[in-house]
Amino acid sequence: MGKGRGQWQFLSVGVFLQLVTVLRLWRYASALGSMSSIAISYGENGPVFCGLSSDDSHLVNCYGSNSAILYGIPAHFPFYGLTAGDGFVCGLLMKSNQPYCWGSSSYIQMGVPQPITKGAEYSEISAGDYHLCGLRKYGTELQGNNFSLVDCWGYNMTASYVFNGQVTSISAGSGFNCGLFSVNSTVFCWGDQTSSRVITLAPKQLRFQKISAGGYHVCGILQGGSSRVFCWGRSLDLEEEISMEYSSQGNVDFPPRDPMIWIVGGKFHACAIKAFDHSVICWGFMMKPSTPAPSNVRVLEIAAGNYFTCGILAEKSLMPVCWGHGFPSSLPIAVSPGVCNSTPCPPGSYEVSPNGDNAPCNLPGSRICLSCSSPCSNEMYEIVKCSLKSDRKCSYNCSGCLSTQCLSNCSNLVNEKKGGENDRFWALQVPIIVAEIILAVFMVIVVSTTAVFYVRYKLRNCQCSGGNLRAEKLKSSGIKSSHEDVTVGSDLDDLKIRRARMFTYEELKLATCGFKDESQVGKGSFSCVFKGVLKDGTVVAVKRALMSSSNDNKPKNSKEFRTELDLLSRLNHAHLLNLLGYCEEGGERLLVYEFMAHGSLHQHLHGKDRALKQQLDWVRRVTIAVQAARGIEYLHGYACPPVIHRDIKSSNILIDEEHNARVADFGLSLLGPAESGSPLAELPAGTLGYLDPEYYRLHYLTTKSDVYSFGVLLLEILSGRKVIDMLYEEANIVEWAVPLIKSGDFSRILDPELNQPRDLEALKRIANVACKCVRMRGKDRPSMDKVTTALERALAQLMGSPCIDQPILPTEVVLGSSRLHKKSSQRSSNRSSSDVDVVEPEDQRIEFRAPSWITFPSVTSSQRWKSSVSDADIEGKNIEARNVGLVGSGRGDGLRCLEEEIAPASPHENLFLQHNF
Length: 917
Ligand SMILES: Nc1ncnc2c1ncn2[C@@H]1O[C@H](COP(=O)(O)OP(=O)(O)OP(=O)(O)O)[C@@H](O)[C@H]1O
Known about the structure:
Distance between the termini: 33 Å
Strand content: 15-25%
Shape: elongated
Bound molecules: adenosine-5'-triphosphate
Largest sheet: 6 strands, mixed
Number of strands: 38
Radius of gyration: 32 Å
Number of helices: 26
């Protein structure tokens, strides 16, 4: 990110050439933005603060915890200035005007970034999270012709960018860059804006003195008298959104309105130096706990890390101080607030001398020059002029105050003057304000009570009719409303179990040969599943809740059992597993489902029988994906109230006799919020690897959590690998697949067991859909209906349809399924449960499950580790260490992404992670 104050114009000029360089650079002094004499690197290996030494050597000095940066410091290279990103630091070499980087980033290698453009020299460099950009110096042939060239290196950015017009400064954010044109001072941005929207939001009409990119936003200081800050992007212009979503993790402050002279951007925050008194102020999202920015102290220079900021105080010393979250508040290295320069400071700048004993430059006659603050704004007047010895100082002109900032700064005077008037004003206003508050509270109570009653009324009478349009849509997509014949106001309990038949325990015992082991076809966390044949020949699957060890003989998780019963009996879709009936006798609780002859998708993809996997060719796999998507779309869009499945995974996608997919297991489902925007504050539940990180961290449950899990499922279908697999360098499928897809290397994720189709485009589409589904923020993910449409198109393309823009409807026509509410179980072959090709309950246990309050009694954690060890065939010790590392360091699962995208885990959360995984 562009973090730091650019004062590298103060160049050392020991030799004539350097002097020439300095003089040329002075022309653009005010435009040197993101490079600075200090820079902060951040990321999973820990933050590091680097600065140019407080002598005139221009050598780098760093402090922090990333050893790759500390040990990689180029001890003998003098730099003009520094910039830093996720795990790396780069400096602009004085000798060659080229960047030189070091650290632990896999995107920015140590040394001069490759490819080097021969003869290229840079006037400024700026680092984003995973990339570095350099602005070519003026005077190149292209720029001489009123073009500018920016070279970038790193993730998704390696290219040379040509801009029509002279660019004076650049600043890099997370996956994007922005620049300022010199002619009209307008801003432009380019790169990947998926997570920030900075490119589309860039204000074309505004003119800036300076810009600075943060993680997902850009802030700039406006030209003109106001010198105010203007921010855009995902985090700083959308304070409300942030404050709603992250209010439990930190505070969100609004951008100040004071005139500013300098600005830097962190991941979700920004800090600036005020023109008025050179004190620092920060705003945006502040993690809890955060130390406050130093107040009423002059600051010479600032640089931002992801959740913290460091600055060099003018008065104290040259030791940097830091504030915010996640870094020590004072650092034991002295750094330079600029670069020492042996020539006198040019007009418009002043010499820095923090205090006599602590002169920043060793050589006699050598000094640091900093540019003076901008001229005082309209409401201010100059109290100290800009001179060699001092910066310009401004004070508010209290007689002409227009802004609140001015008013508050002049408050003492104003108060004295207006004291009498104010007293009268408040004497009148206070009773009115109190009355208004009381009225507002009353209105809120009335509205919320009405809303509660209304929602309850709707739920009781929910018929999901939704008018003719909806009924027609349901019909056309193979859905039969389960409430067609329900009279309004009928008893809710009757409604819930209306369609499910009640079985006796004896009946089911007989059907499953006394629940003997041979009849068992699967085992879940809450239940065992048996194959059974009813008296009339219907083949069924009987799900028997696990019994607790206590004497009262109550089945475990009876709440889950009843939830599933309620839900399933009300839902009816060709791609949902139908509930046929239930039994509730004594302590026994059993559910009777249609029997799925071909077991689960998990067994096909990860079972020991390779033939089973190869049977699932690309068309069949995509068909299964489309069908599962339709089932989930029905749950989200047509079930009333909407249902969030919460445990979408391959072992819950069952395959019937005709190889059609059915979404099963509503044991973890919840009735969704009536309004999709209101999240359910439930404890997270689900299966690790598929679990939506946003839901997990923030307990923010919407239908988009299912979309995330479905995205993981898509990656699993495409790659044929398990969602958590220690045999891969990236154990988590999302961490592994998404970078490959994004870098255009998508064919590397395709299942090697299958031959690649001639036209890869369809699978590429699906991979892209999957990437969108697993985005960190639910809001950025597509809804299930969009996912379904995209998959249908991809399927049509895969099958060679010329008309891929038409979604395929209805299911049965294209996918060859003749099933529509007919009891396929009745037609199921009487395959005995010893048909072990699809029955590998052990194999399913190689999964990492979610936290302890949703642990599943059938499998102890030690069993899970054991099975993962044998599965991965890795030495026990190693796997344990890696598993701990996976969670403790936040590496390798979707959580890591969230940690970096939204916020680091709190100590409490870290503790929780370590305990539960
Ligand atoms: N209707 C069915 N027909 C055939 N096999 C089934 C049926 N329902 C479940 N199974 C088999 O039984 C296994 C266990 O199913 P169950 O729903 O109890 O647990 P799960 O979803 O695999 O795991 P968990 O309950 O831990 O989420 C399934 O993976 C599947 O192989």
